Amino acid sequence: MKWTKITLNTTTEALDYLGAIAMDLGLEGFEIEDNVPLTEEDKKRMFIDILPTLPPDDGSARVSFYVPKDTDTEKLLEDIKREAADYESFCDFGAMTFDFATTDDSDYINNWKKYFKSFRVNDRLVIKPTWEEKAPMAKDGDTVIEIDPGTAFGTGAHETTKLCLLAMSERLKKGDTCIDIGCGSGILSIAAILFGARNAFGFDVDDNASKISVENAGVNKIPAEYRESFDKCDIDAIKDGEILFATGNLLESEDLPKSLEGHTFDFTAANILADVIIPLAPYARKLTRTGGFITCSGILTTKEDSVVKALVENGFEIVGIKRMGEWSGITAKAV
User: Fold this and answer.
1) Whether residue 214 has pLDDT greater than 50
2) pTM of the full structure
3) Which of 122, 128, 177, 190 shows the smallest number of beta carbons within 10 Å?
4) Contact call for residues 178 and 200 (beta carbons, < 8 A)
């Protein structure tokens, strides 16, 4: 479907008023660009290590509306300006100039797919997007994982996911049980089963990621089920060769969820971020069998020491560190 993108040049103080105007005119949401600095609460909610660098906040803002291509945009702009005039005595709406662009659903839903191609992780593992018929570099005996991350993180192409896959390829043994903390697209849980794990349990704070993981497991012919919360999980009921995916956040409580109490896994994967891995370290130790392994990534090399410290302080012994670009992957043994 074709859409018209209308971008309005305005001010940050006018955003609330424009939101009310958009609702009055039946516009279902809009996109905001501004230079307002992030608060500490914003940074925690975003769960990112590399924060955007913003220019000085000059009070300007750009608001974009997406409307069907056949919309009478001239009338819509007149309506927006007319309603804005009612509030001009309360705030400065700025230039109120408009830019136009035509876009398509595929522009922001599917265009990224042209950059995700089949690739080899190591001498035994190949990642293939679901929309490619075959992976040209795959050979007999390779493990091939098909993946469509949708809106979840984890194509396998990013250095952080590669680091976890490489560690898993080296350390996970046939018959191991696996827990995948922050499962994203489910790629690490899927890899665990294909590498010979007995079963796997993956979860993510993003409910969409948990559901996408189930779909990706199905593409790889791996039975998988979804649970909306930890309370709905029965770890003992996971069958051999199956994966259970759930939505949940371990950091919401000082204690493990009751469904996870007393359960340990042979292999733990955590491809998240350093600032999340550090507070998760005590939970990860409780969930990792003594003698079992944890591999974690999403760690900028500048935060490597902090993660190592957290793991060691919580009962892990570092057995390997690998780096790709600015990212580190740390593998440790539960002692």
Assistant:
1) yes
2) 0.70
3) 122
4) yes
Topology (CATH) of 2-109: Alpha-Beta Plaits (3.30.70)
Give the CATH class of 160-334.
alpha beta
CB distance 256 to 296 below 8 Å: no
For helices 207-219 and 187-194, give the axis angle rounded to 10 degrees: 30
228's tokens: 């909306």
Q: In this structure, how many other beta carbons lie within 10 angstroms of the beta carbon of residue 119? A: 16
In the chain, ranges of CATH 3.30.70.120 domains: 2-109
Q: What is the pLDDT of residue 31?
A: 84
b (16+ CB within 10 A) / e for 76-91: bbeebeebbeeeeeeb
Q: What are phi and psi of 139, to 5 degrees?
A: -130, 170
* pLDDT, tens only, 24-72: 787 766 788 888 887 766 655 544 444 556 778 889 999 988 888 888 8
Q: What is the dihedral of CA 112, 324, 163, 329, to 10 degrees?
A: -130
Nearest to 201 by CA among 119, 273, 256, 142: 256
Give the type of residue at 235: I
Q: Provide mean pLDDT across the span 72-88.
A: 88
Q: How many CA atoms lie within 13 A of 133 on its CB side?
A: 0
SS (H, E, C) 45-108: HHCCCCCCCCCCCCCEEEEEEEEECCCCHHHHHHHHHHHHHCCCCCCCCCCCEEEEEEEEHHHH
